Amino acid sequence: MNFLRWIKGSLFCDLAIDLGTANTLVYLKGRGIIVQEPSIVVVNRANGKPEAVGKRAKEMLGKTPANVLAIKPMRDGVIADFEIAEKMLDYFIKKSTNNRGFLIRPRIVIGIPTGITQVERRAVKDVAMRAKASEVYLVEQPMVASVGAGLPISEPTGNMIVDIGGGTTDIAVISLNGIVFNHSIRIAGNEMDESIIQYIKKKYNLLIGERTAEQVKMQIGSAYPLDEPMTLEIKGRDLKEGIPKTIVVDDQEIREALEDVVSSIIGAIRIALEKTPPELSADIIDRGIVLTGGGALLKNFDKRIREETQLPVFITEDPLATVVLGAGKMLDDLPLLKKISLI
After folding, report:
1. Is the pTM of this model over 0.85?
2. What is the Cα–Cα distance from 292 to 289, expressed in whole angstroms?
């Protein structure tokens, strides 16, 4: 029985991957999400070999000695460091399949941002092929996110989805298995973190790291006033004295820090709404806007968008996993996958 299970597992190891700027998720057909880890690799400077990948690498962020370097191979949803991205993807694929050898090389479906170039697409495809894929299908993230959210993409009705990732925000109106209109900006979760770093630096002369900024965003960050005020203690380095220092910030300050990024994303949604064909606009009035991606978890972002657009706004059940779950579903519908994948 175990042998038969091994044979089946070795034969059918098709994968869906959300190769994100902040996190990489891997879905194994028949098993679900196997890997959900940060897109970070710590490399030994002397020999170029990875010392840590994913969660362990993130724990080392900002704390590495001179002989090792923490690298984020993805930037704005595309590959910034080809060699490191290949090592990272190879590691995650092996981890998701427990280092088993494949009797049949896997098909891999990868969700990519809508705004990337043909060269950037080729880089993603090449990385997956070198990680021992038999076929690679690239599908635009709003499309697979819509599948993951359970939207009726095959029907002649308009569905608007906003995917706020780490490096990009993708906005698309989908109908009849195609993207009728899309708008992508390279402003998303990472810019939120950077805005918090700069705000704290300017107002308090305190230098904080990326991990601290992300924690601040997740714990008290918001796009619209909260029902109850929140505060958080932040530790960093005083830029005047050069010594460690602790301050306390409140949610109103962090909301102020995030305002430019939040306004840019809402502005992009407005552009998409303005350019949507009238017949589909009527559907969006009824169906509303669906939010997904890690940025959708920013407190009260849905309320802010609802107030600005006067439209219903919904957040998917698991915003961080919606893209990879949609890509996973596509593995069971090969005709549709071939129809909507990019060449």
Report:
1. yes
2. 10
